[in-house]
């Protein structure tokens, strides 16, 4: 038996260090290939003709004029779909191309391949579609009445009817439709293969799910559809559903030429799902000390025309409907409606964002009724080790050093208590006008400007819930290169910008004690990694990479690398979860819970309705910090998206028609809108997770929105039940002077 | 029509056949210089920012036909190494789609102002959208780059 090789220690960039991301260098040098940068010899450009109507019967499509145009290589409609006519992430209901009905504005009706994009666009204009325009269903409340929904999830614990409360607050909340707005447009390249299959280079969040959905639509076997990841310019949920994939593959197969597709910004707004807009009616009852007695909630999330992930979004909204608080009596009803509005699906926070705005607003309303401090009312109701969520799931957060065994650890109280040491900023003397709401617009010199402070708490599930068999795969090969051990890591996990690939390399360095780690191209030649969503990749693919590293390490102990390489593949699974009971909503449905708290400080010009967020302080429990600099970036970015929802971002949809599909009219935060941020990152380890980590990318998106709105309420005294808060919400109570 | 341009230090000839073609389209689609990005092509995001005869412009708004003989610097030629290094070291790059445009804007700012304050940085970069970072690390990176360049 050979002597076991002693394990060396990596000299740098292990787990816990701010390892530099490997793709940063090509990205700053301008030579990182995004999906939109791809090109191939002799390639054609694809383009999509979309329905201008939210609901219309398609009587006929005349493509003759388009086909006759010089430079046009193919014009395809629903009749040309080679295989299955529909696809979908959960339910198989979305047509590849609309056949007899168009069910939302922007639904693809025909696709064109031409020598250049201009020609393809002109060809689209030359297609005549005979539409019989029908009355769209756009009101989600009406959809509920008509039974038009993808899911209805009730949840019942105790009986609110029997509960008596000293104080009751009942309000209705509205959350507008938010867009992920990743800067990289939907794009990709399809290359026909000699064997009749197709190679796709795409920017997607989940390669294997794409492959599973694409192949049947093309009438091909999965093994004939090979996907390789192209550079991703942000995702945030927008790349979970298919966009260009089947269309460009159809065009490539029809023309036997490489075909590139790329949406412009307007088409991007129509070409991916959005965050579900919500209307929610909440009633909270509390005793005289502010302890919650009961909660009733009716939550209507509009799923739009097709199912996408509405089913899972409704599950999250219902199960997280009261947040991280203990309540004995709860009655929730949550719907995900089917309408002729734009389809909605995944966006960072995934069903947790909408309800978080409502339940946190309710906690503040109760605190105000009772004259309690907003932090204090949250402390009094905070979940702790052994608490039951409203689904009956028992909270397992033992805490690290619990001082008093009789008082179980509360991870939320721990976070809330930390704000005492980080006071909100004082109003500086002699402010420059650019620091005031309105900035260089010179709208005020301080008159009418009022400061406010508010808090928001978010509770997010990490990984896929409700019994889904969520797994990830990693293959690691260790071999000697120039006498030095080098690990080659192969996974299908999407690097959407979050820095996941860097985390993979840090894990391998740590587990194998080596310095050199090479990441192989991300493709479908290795098993599924699941989606880069639900804050799950550090946990899941991180877990798979850790497991494969451990397997390699074990083999290495009895094997000399000089005799040849070592390889191990591991699938990683989290603990199994249970579905929610369809009637009571009960079930141990979530893998892991993650908490985040924001405090926002705002200045509001109460005469003009202008808001300036001057500080955001975030305290988040991440279990274990894997890469400080990357983690901070996630918290900053998530907080910014929450700020966007609080005060600026809304897709305006009028009778099913999107009114602001551009960056001119759909505003995302600029560097002038973002305040300086202060972070306190807490490590309450989860013993069940790799390294004790908790998913971290989403929770701040939940809590920053209610914190900012609470701060605006504090400044203005207005109820503010609609996000985004618009200037007119802040000024409409003002009496106009004659 | 045929045009001569000076791009990132090289003399380049471009053939264009569309009168409204933007400098961004010429760079990306005709010349294969994809370093400049195309997040909106409406002049709203700054991902296509280049220096045209030294001034920062949105390349998506500039007609190529008006660029005969002019000097174009993209992320490849406009950005001093300390600026790029600072973006890498400070974690200012996530998906990176905004990065080429931001780097050009930062290079322009630091050429005018060798120790910019936070408000000056915010003002100078207000035309460059980033959806990933929340801008904190970008501001860190500008300060680091300024220090390293002095
Ligand atoms: S692509 Fe030019 S400003 Fe957006
Ligand atoms: S890093 Fe993704 S847009 Fe800025």
UniProtKB/TrEMBL annotation, chain A:
Residues 29-135 form the Aldehyde oxidase/xanthine dehydrogenase a/b hammerhead domain. SUPFAM superfamilies: CO dehydrogenase molybdoprotein N-domain-like, Molybdenum cofactor-binding domain. Pfam families: Ald_Xan_dh_C (PF01315), MoCoBD_1 (PF02738), MoCoBD_2 (PF20256). GO terms for molecular function: iron ion binding; oxidoreductase activity. InterPro entries: Ald_Oxase/Xan_DH_a/b (IPR000674), Ald_Oxase/Xan_DH_a/b_sf (IPR036856), Ald_Oxase/xanthine_DH-like (IPR016208), AldOxase/xan_DH_MoCoBD1 (IPR008274), AldOxase/xan_DH_MoCoBD2 (IPR046867), AldOxase/xan_DH_Mopterin-bd_sf (IPR037165). This is Xanthine dehydrogenase subunit D.
TrEMBL record, chain B:
PANTHER family: OXIDOREDUCTASE WITH IRON-SULFUR SUBUNIT, XANTHINE DEHYDROGENASE IRON-SULFUR-BINDING SUBUNIT XDHC-RELATED. This is (2Fe-2S)-binding protein. GO terms for molecular function: 2 iron, 2 sulfur cluster binding; metal ion binding; oxidoreductase activity. It comes from the Bacteria. Coiled coil: none annotated. Keywords: 2Fe-2S, Iron, Iron-sulfur, Metal-binding, Oxidoreductase. SUPFAM superfamilies: 2Fe-2S ferredoxin-like, CO dehydrogenase ISP C-domain like. Residues 1-78 form the 2Fe-2S ferredoxin-type domain.
